[in-house]
Amino acid sequence: MVQISKASHMGGRSSSVLRKFLAGLIIVDALIAIWIIAIAGNWDPRLLIGWAVLNVVIAISALAIIKSSSRRKGSSSLQARHTRYYYSPSQEEERHTRDSDDDYNSDFHRAAYITMNGETVKSKGEKLLADYFYQNNIVYQYERAAWTTGTRFKSKRMISKPDFYLPDYDVYVEYWGMVNTKDKNNRADYIKSMEWKMTKYDENKIKFVSIYPNNLDDLDRIFKARLRKATTTVADAKRDN
């Protein structure tokens, strides 16, 4: 629900008073002009000066009204651009959106998703993952940057901001929520970006886990298996064998 502030009311009231004042001045101005025309060349010069001053006041009042109106429109536009609606989907809605979670909220006006930890995330899938980590006491950071490996001759560069970072495991978690989007062009671009990120992670020996929308119904089993695989070194694998 949008509430109109007291300042907005005051601005509107001031503008209304100015308009009425200007209307009164214009009526007076018109009457004086008629009078001057009626008495032809017998007017007092002081009357002419007064009439000129009145016209200046009318012009200033008109400019003030225009400025006030423009300022209120700008304020309304700014308020509309920065209005954000927060929405936490019910379990039933989450269940129906797990198969195709392609509704990321890149648009500022669309709904945001609030996690159990009180954070704002961009999609239902990210909310489900964050809530899963929270409920299972898995420490995570949302959208922490992943960097290339720096060398003596080459400085580090940011690759991207994966959805989650698990500091206790030194593992990033990417939720590829738009991989099944219905828009073919968007899907192709998204997959290309996804593959590029995966290549960069591998090149820089960055451990990561990929989660897809169709994994969310069996998240606990799938995530644990992929986390185990991501954190298992070659030495660990040989020792297990």
From TrEMBL:
Record key words, sorted: Membrane, Transmembrane, Transmembrane helix
Bilayer-crossing regions: 21-41, 47-66
Protein known as: Uncharacterized protein
Species of the source: Candidatus Nitrososphaera evergladensis SR1
Species classification: Archaea, Nitrososphaerota, Nitrososphaeria, Nitrososphaerales, Nitrososphaeraceae
